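Input (structure):
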């Protein structure tokens, strides 16, 4: 970090770092950052140096109570609450020498009523005492100011606004524009300023000081559980209890309570909810935090919910004036409250863990998985850096505080870029001028495929219509521009070969502007791996496949190799005599029949496939019999079969791989059908195989592990291609490498079996 040089003679100026005059804002709570240029070091005494923030209407009326914010070596951060319409923001630098500088800007706030809000809800037990855990050192233990239901509501409201401000600033810093979710608001006595709370306590709700106590502020819904406190605090449902057998139950109970409440919280509304469990409690005898779960999940067809216990809520600020004290309080919470994950040895660290971990669960409700940043416990200690110009020492990590916090300061309490990209087009983050996209666009995976031109094959990556954000080869970014995304990018085969050897797998990672990523462990597999020259002709049949990692690294696996052409030759006499719709070879008096069905056989892994033909016979994409000669029967609880006309072409297949093995198959046909399935594994990659022009897919090929037993996993699955203008030569039907006969494993053991004549 570079501290600007200061000239003693130059006037002190307040320089704002993240907002422009006359900017339009679509969130109520805004994080403001800046610095005081040319401020002498001795003028930064925190006891006498601060920034005073005033918020006025265009007519000069006060819209929000005045707030003060500390400086650290001339840098400051401040949270603003805006009122609908025009807000005149005045920032004044006060020091022991008096007022040194003032700056003013105008911000216009439009409440984003066009987008669905993040809902806030508190689950209350049917017999709840309406109190939360709180150390005796809070409020000197003389009142319930930090532990009653009103305090929990105020702290939750203030925390949610902090989430909103942090998210918007993080999105802005990432170059995706200032955007965030908004909160459902209603007209009631506000609690986001101490002034409002004090006025309300004295019954002065009609006061207009600070813009008035009554205003639109975040609604915190109270939902009643059917369970009692004892049931909620059952150790068997405590998520942190390793011996618990129902550790997801609290999330289910919360979901049930929301569904029962109905309205904007119900199933039909499909809300995204951040849910606080009021009756959480630390049990010192067992060392468990009871009635607490840190769980979240997205449900596009119902309630998306992230839940968290109230056991750290005592440390959160109730209103704006408590933000800095709450995030700098170095006092120990004591042994009477839970030390969540061992990170809560001071009040401010408890605040970081509580607010950050709760946002983590809300992130799951928005659809974000575990990955670095907020979604991978980046919030202990670092959470405070989002709101402070300097931080306190960490007791849990025995680390000093950060004297100056800027945008360049390391901070893991931010969203991962993939989260930010997905938020940009999420309906809860929409801004009025944003286009509306179908859900299929928002979930669309980037395309990575081989195309063909006069210059030869090339690799094309695209993500229509939003564009590409990131492309990485071997972990090195070759494209990283989400501010100006391109629709597609191409790499010629010879370019790739000049940079990387084909003897080693070439990993590629592609991220669309929707935040969806696709990773291929070996992009070389997309290019034709070779060709089969048809005997006695100049015809070449191309091959491209996806193989398991083991196939490339081990040579001791017994294999059954197979190929299935989508046209098969069969005798015109006997049991397969066909009507006039079959093609007849006038020389050999044999018939050529076409494929009319494909059965994708998928279970926990990819078993293979079965191709059916016009005359009713079937050929497996995999072993025909086991080691004992018994016919092999394909399993697969996720299998799917489709029929199609003999004139239909297979246009593309998708093969999924997870944990090094192939585990799913999906087929696309020219009549618009898609069937089969893709991987259900979280860490999986899917490769698309299709014929480049001027070719077409004429069959499948591959191999299966062929060991003892009855299950033979697919090790390789690929496509056979041929020029569209070339018919399959007759000689091809007799070539062993284009058929599925004995798999290269020799004659069938013990001759024919009674169960063994289905595969032909």
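Output (sequence):
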């Amino acid at each position: 970090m570079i501290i600007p040089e200061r000239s003693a003679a130059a006037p002190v100026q307040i320089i704002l770092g993240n907002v422009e005059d006359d900017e339009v804002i679509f969130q109520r709570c805004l994080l403001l950052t800046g610095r005081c240029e040319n401020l002498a070091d001795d003028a930064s005494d925190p006891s006498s140096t601060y920034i005073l923030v005033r918020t006025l209407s265009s007519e000069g009326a006060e819209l929000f109570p005045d707030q003060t914010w500390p400086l650290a070596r001339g840098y400051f951060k401040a949270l603003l609450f805006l009122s609908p319409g025009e807000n005149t923001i005045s920032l004044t630098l006060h020091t022991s020498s008096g007022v040194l500088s003032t700056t003013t800007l105008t911000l216009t706030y439009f409440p984003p009523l066009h987008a669905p809000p993040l809902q806030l809800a508190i689950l209350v037990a049917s017999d709840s005492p309406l109190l939360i855990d709180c150390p005796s050192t809070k409020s000197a233990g003389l009142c319930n100011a930090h532990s009653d239901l009103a305090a929990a509501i105020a702290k939750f409201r203030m925390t949610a606004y902090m989430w909103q401000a942090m998210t918007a600033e993080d999105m802005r810093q990432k170059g995706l524009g200032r955007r965030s979710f908004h909160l459902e608001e209603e007209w009631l006595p506000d609690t986001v300023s101490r002034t409002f709370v004090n006025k309300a306590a004295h019954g002065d709700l009609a006061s207009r000081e600070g813009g008035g106590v009554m205003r639109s502020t975040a609604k915190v819904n109270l939902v009643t559980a059917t369970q009692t406190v004892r049931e909620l605090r059952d150790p068997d449902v405590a998520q942190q209890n390793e011996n618990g057998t129902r550790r997801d139950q609290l999330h289910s109970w919360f979901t049930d309570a929301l569904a029962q409440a109905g309205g904007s919280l119900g199933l039909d509304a499909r809300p995204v909810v951040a849910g606080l469990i009021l009756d959480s409690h630390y049990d010192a005898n067992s060392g468990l935090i009871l009635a607490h779960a840190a769980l979240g999940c997205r449900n596009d067809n119902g309630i998306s919910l992230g839940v968290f216990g109230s056991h750290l809520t005592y440390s959160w600020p109730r209103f704006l004036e408590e933000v800095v004290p709450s995030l700098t309080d170095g006092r120990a919470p004591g042994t009477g409250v839970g030390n969540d994950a061992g990170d809560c040895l001071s009040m401010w660290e408890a605040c970081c863990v509580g607010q950050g971990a709760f946002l983590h669960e809300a992130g799951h409700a928005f659809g974000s998985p575990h990955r670095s940043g907020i979604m991978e416990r980046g919030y202990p200690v670092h959470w405070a850096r989002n709101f402070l110009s300097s931080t306190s020492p960490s007791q849990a990590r025995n680390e000093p505080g950060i004297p100056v916090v800027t945008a360049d300061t390391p901070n893991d309490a931010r969203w991962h870029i993939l989260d930010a990209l997905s938020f940009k087009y999420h309906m809860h983050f929409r801004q009025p001028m944003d286009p509306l996209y179908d859900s299929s666009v928002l979930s669309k995976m980037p395309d990575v495929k081989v195309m063909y031109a006069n210059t030869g094959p090339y690799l094309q990556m695209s993500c229509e219509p939003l564009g590409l954000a990131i492309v990485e080869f071997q972990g090195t970014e070759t494209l990283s521009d989400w501010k100006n995304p391109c629709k597609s990018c191409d790499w010629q085969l010879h370019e790739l070969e000049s940079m990387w050897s084909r003897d080693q797998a070439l990993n590629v990672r592609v991220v669309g502007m929707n935040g969806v990523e696709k990773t291929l462990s070996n992009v070389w597999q997309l290019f034709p791996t070779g060709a089969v020259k048809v005997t006695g002709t100049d015809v070449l049949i191309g091959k491209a496949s996806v193989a398991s990692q083991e196939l490339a690294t081990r040579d001791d696996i017994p294999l059954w190799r197979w190929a299935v052409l989508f046209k098969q030759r069969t005798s015109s006499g006997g049991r397969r005599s066909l009507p006039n719709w079959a093609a007849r070879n006038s020389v050999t008096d044999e018939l050529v029949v076409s494929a009319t069905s494909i059965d994708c056989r998928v279970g926990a892994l990819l078993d293979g496939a079965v191709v059916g033909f016009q005359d009713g016979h079937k050929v497996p994409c995999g072993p025909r019999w086991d080691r004992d000669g018994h016919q092999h029967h394909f399993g697969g609880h996720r299998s799917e079969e489709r029929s199609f006309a003999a004139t239909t072409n297979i246009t593309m297949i998708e093969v999924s791989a997870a944990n090094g093995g192939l585990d799913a198959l999906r087929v696309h046909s020219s009549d618009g059908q898609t069937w089969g399935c893709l991987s259900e594994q979280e860490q999986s990659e899917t490769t698309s195989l299709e014929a480049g022009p001027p070719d077409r897919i004429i069959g499948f090929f591959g191999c299966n592990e062929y060991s003892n037993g009855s299950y033979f996993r697919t090790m390789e699955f690929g496509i056979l291609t041929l020029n569209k203008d070339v018919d399959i030569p007759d000689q091809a039907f007799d070539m062993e490498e284009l058929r599925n006969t004995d798999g290269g494993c020799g004659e069938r053991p013990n001759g024919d079996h009674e169960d063994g004549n289905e595969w032909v």
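Notes: The mean pLDDT is 90. The chain has four domains: 13-109, 118-184+219-429, 453-524, 528-738.
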